[in-house]
Amino acid sequence: MMSRVIIVRRLESFIAKGAGELGVFDGFRISFSCRPKIFSNEIYRDPTKTVSLDEVKQSYGGIIKDADLANFRSAYVNPEAGWADAGTAVKRMLEESIAVGIEYKVGDAVGIVLRGQSGVKGVKLATGEVVEADKIVLTTGAWTSFLMHSIEEELGLRHEERIERQLTAAAVCVAHYQLTEEEVELYSKMPVIVYGEKGIPFGHRVFMFSDAESFAGEVLPPPQSGILKFTFSGSVTNTITVTSEQRISVPPFQDQSIVPQALKNEILDIIKSLMPYFQNNGREVDRWRLCWDSITPTQNQLICRHPNPSMHNLCLAVGGSFHSYKFLPTIGKYVANVIHGISNGDEKDHAWEWKATGSQDRLKCAHANVIPKRDLKDLIHMESR
Fold first, then answer.
1. β-bridge mates for residue 218, sequence order
2. Cβ(64)–Cβ(221) under 8 Å?
3. Which residues pair with 216 in a beta bridge?
4. In whole angstroms, what is the distance from residue 57 CA to residue 68 CA?
5. Residue 99: CA atoms inside 13 Å, Cβ hemisphere, count?
6. How far is 5 from 287, CA to CA, in rounded Å?
7. What's the predicted TM-score (pTM) here?
8. What is the mean pLDDT of residues 258-266?
């Protein structure tokens, strides 16, 4: 008999399937035809080359000819890097998932419900309805701790046994500029740019500078909407107390366009250094936003079954850590393996497993500067002084 699986997708929506859990992931296994070379024998060939800073300024019609590169010494270019329109890709994948039989529903998920000692019963909605399933998969990103804390309380889990020890909700600040038609024509030719930290990667081509230990700023070419987005990589938490002893980070229950001025100032400084054009003539940012994700100490995803026997049928596919979108074409099969109890191989199983308290792996991460070190309340308090 086929199992019923619920995929809880963020706080406000879920995907349910009554005809077997494998069907749920048919849509998640959709591949997009991009960068065919990545699967060829050339995969281990290094396509990068060193370029001078003068070359950087002269590239792409000189769109960053006025950038302040005083803190940088060198750069490299990668002609095989790329980017994708995330919103459009997810929309297409959802449409394909529904086409193969996925039942897609929308509701406000507020908690996980136990089935006594025999596992998790289902997902509770704000309406009081409990959507039941044989297996539940959380793909809830920054809302994971919030969704889990009530069941952790019910089971009396110690602090080190809770999901907040595995990941935390964090946000980066994004500034939006609505471009004119003429600006779209100019900036649509640009690469992805990351300015600061240890480099400045460009998307279709990638330049990486070797100096600067500060936070990074990132800007993407405008999609069809004509919106140019600058992102500041210095992430922040929003810590709340859910019991007298337990503290978790969750996105604030308010408009995510409400951004502390301190964060705005930091990203405006980066914009001024990278593309002063957008700071000239008193031009204002058209929209501010905090973009949330769940981040793990290692910046590896958490793709596993929950280790507590009372939640043995609860699977996790969380911990995107601000870099996991690139796995969209391939990651579904690994999540499906976890659902079916199939190993993904020693290396992947170890990287994605629930980390034991005191594990040395918790100390390793690829980009330490992205790990949140500040809380929103601290920034707001700074403004009020």
1. 194, 231
2. no
3. 196
4. 10
5. 9
6. 38
7. 0.84
8. 91
